[in-house]
Design brief:
The complex is a heterodimer. By secondary structure, chain A is of the alpha/beta class. Chain A has 8 helices and 9 strands. Chain A has 2 domains: 177 residues, Rossmann fold (3-Layer(aba) Sandwich); 65 residues, no CATH class. Helices cover 36% and strands 25% of the residues of chain A. Chain A is globular. Chain B is built from 11 helices and no strands. Classes of the chains: A alpha/beta, B mainly alpha. Chains A and B meet through strand 5 and helix 3 of A and helix 8 and helix 9 of B. Chain A: This is ABC transporter ATP-binding protein.
Chain lengths: 258, 255
């Protein structure tokens, strides 16, 4: 739990937009993430949090800087299929049933058939969609679809779980319930989790550390350690300590001109 | 259920009313035609009944040519779409050339095919093949390449190889477009086959039958061939619809 596992070294990302202007999405961000840690990348839209996640996932190449994960490049980790990613959208394939959607990455990774079936059963149960395995995506609500996307990533038992605002499209009740569920699942797997969000209470509730990013250009503004005891339950949200952390982080944003 | 009945009932009633008006001579009045120019429905049906075996045989000749040509043309069109997907740089240019092919009139195409093929059947298949390529190429290309956001990222995140991406993402994603192309091609292939028979050396097929009978002023016989051609077109279209309903029941168009 103390070893540095992911090193983000001076990572910058400059886009050129259609008008030919250069946009600084990330400006020399450095960060160390420990093994088994749950960290949140928190910030308003335009702060480069999703960009940073995509760079770590090797879905995007930074214009400057590098990322080292267990002494390897993100590409090595991707080829070794050690990432599980939950996207902003469910990204379900319309022609596959819920079960077969969860199955898809496992098929590609060559997980044996028996193992696939048992993992699908387990994760479907976990996200509360036990009776929906045979349904097609269009038969599900948006929240249910997103839960399938989460089950699909979890079924890989990934060493690195990357989540890009997975709950942002859900209502507050579902979000809080899934926050709690996610912690419970994470407690069992001990993956390293990088969680992108723009919701301050969510980041406090989930994380060991909250990385505060501010926009234009995307910069690391603060790193806040969350020393709240685990396991955490939703009652924690009503405690004074919880409010203190939320207030402290909110202040980080007020101090920086945005 | 009620809506379903209504959906069938209204067009059916309209069709029957139209046939009745035609039979009673009102259509002729409105369009200023004489019965020897446009025969009435009953006369067409009687003629068709009397010549049914010959009509069915001719219909078979035309349809088999149309069907084989449509399958070959669609297959070539699909291959072009696949190649354009694998090699995007030249592929796109290739697609534009295919659209140019599509603009070629069948009337011009048929005599050229006559030079290449000695039998009427081969000539017909050649014409239909060319006519059917473009719709499939354009539609399939769009289906292979218009992917939902992040669906490619999902593949990359587990390091899927190109072939796997093709098989598990692009191919199923393009099925609705493939069916759209088939539906376009059913109508196009029958028309192309019939028109190509106008110019063919053979003396069989619906196209030849229509041309020959209209030339001999056997209007009822000519029209009975037209009826058979339309029925055949509708029938094949229904087969494609049923197939579509089974293969892409997950698609928005099937809900």
């Amino acid at each position: 739990m103390s070893e540095t596992q992911i090193q983000v070294k001076d990572v910058s990302m400059v886009y050129t937009n259609n008008a030919g202007e250069k946009i600084n999405a990330l400006d020399s961000v450095s960060l160390d993430i420990k093994e088994g840690e749950f960290i949140s990348l928190l910030g308003p839209s335009g702060c480069g949090k999703t960009t940073l996640l995509r760079i770590i996932a090797d879905l995007l190449q930074p214009t400057d800087g590098e990322i080292i994960i267990d002494g390897q490049s993100p590409r090595d980790i991707r080829i070794k299929q050690e990432y599980g990613i939950v996207f902003q959208q469910p990204v379900l394939y319309d022609w596959r049933t819920v079960r077969r959607n969860i199955c898809l990455p496992m098929e590609i990774m060559g997980v044996p058939k028996k193992e696939r079936t048992s993992r699908i059963d387990e994760k479907l149960d976990l996200v509360g969609l036990k009776d929906f395995g045979k349904k097609y995506p269009f038969e599900l609500s948006g929240g249910m679809q997103q839960r399938v996307g989460i089950a699909r990533a979890l079924a890989l038992n990934p060493k690195y779980l990357l989540m890009d605002e997975p709950f942002s499209a859900l209502d507050e009740f579902t979000r809080e319930k899934l926050n709690e569920d996610l912690l419970e699942i994470w407690g069992k797997t001990k993956s390293t989790v990088i969680f992108v969000t723009h919701n301050i209470p969510e980041s406090v509730f989930l994380s060991d550390r909250v990385i505060v990013l501010t926009p234009h250009p995307g910069k690391l503004a603060a790193v806040v350690d969350i020393d709240l005891p685990r396991p955490r339950r939703n009652e924690l949200r009503d405690s004074p300590e919880f409010f203190e952390y939320v207030a402290k982080i909110r202040k980080c944003f007020q101090e920086v001109k945005m | 259920m009620m809506n379903k009945v209504k959906n069938i009932l209204w067009p059916l009633l309209f069709g029957i009313a139209f046939l009745a008006l035609w039979q009673m001579g009102y259509v002729h009045k409105v369009l200023d035609l004489k019965p020897f120019q446009l025969p009435v429905p009953l006369e067409i049906v009687q003629t068709l009944h009397a010549n049914l075996p010959k009509a069915i045989k001719d219909c078979g000749v035309t349809l088999s040519g149309a069907f084989i040509g449509m399958m070959i043309g669609s297959a070539i069109g699909f291959m072009i779409a696949v190649i354009a997907t694998i090699f995007p740089k030249w592929g796109y240019g290739g697609l534009i050339i295919i659209t140019a092919f599509n603009a070629m009139p069948i009337v011009a195409l048929s005599p050229i095919m006559n030079l290449y093929f000695s039998t009427g059947m081969a000539q017909k298949i050649g014409v239909v093949t060319i006519v059917c390529m473009a719709a499939m190429a354009m539609n399939a290309y769009s289906g292979l390449n218009t992917l939902k956001p992040y669906s490619m990222d999902l593949m990359h995140s587990v390091a899927a190889e190109r072939w796997v991406i093709f098989k598990k993402l692009r191919l199923p994603n393009c099925m609705p477009n493939v069916f759209t192309a088939f539906k376009i091609n059913v109508a196009a292939s029958i028309i192309a086959a019939i028109i190509s028979e106008y110019f063919a050396t053979s003396t069989a097929g619906l196209g030849f039958g229509i041309k020959d009978n209209l030339r001999k002023a056997e209007m009822a016989m000519g029209w009975s061939y037209i009826v058979v051609a339309s029925l055949a077109g509708v029938l094949i279209y229904i087969v494609i619809l049923l197939l579509e309903r089974n293969v892409i029941k997950w698609h928005a168009s099937q809900r």
